[in-house]
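Protein modeling request. Please complete all fields; requests missing the sequence field cannot be processed.
Requester role: graduate student
Desired output: 3D structure, token encoding
Chains: 1
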Amino acid sequence: MKFLTKLVCFMLLCNIAHTEDRLDFLKKACSDPGSVHNQIPPSDLKVACDDTVFTWVLSDDEDVAFKNRRKMCTSVTTSKPNVNAAQACEDCGVPDSQFKCQGYKEIQKCVRMTFGVTCEQILAMESIVKWCVDHIDEEVAINEEILNVKETGKKKPCGYKEGMEIKPLNPKFPR
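Delivered output (175 residues):
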């Protein structure tokens, strides 16, 4: 059991380090192209942003707050061999949902966008995820119809408190 716990912690640390190293590697390829392959900087840079936001919407009337989640997945490709960043995903903060009561259902909002970027933009980024969050939010503010919205099937009753376990009425058909 200790080995499994250590392995999971190691994997999480590697993923965090990998996420931070991706941007550093791209910045190095842009600022010192000779250090990665040849003397030209990467071109045809594209940042792919896969944004999935889970929010709860009211099914009726009473003040309740639910924790929302947001996950951003990013990747970068270039025309230069061995200069790219594989897909990585991170949780991003999103404000809690405040509601009146009856019941609640979870809604999933997804959008995938790819943006062409320059080395100058890569060099100015503090985080690929933050860059994607800002650009996706800007695009959604202009046109919410780009979102793919669907219900997840998850529901919470009125008065639900975070951490409260919901048991199905019929064990053969869980919620």
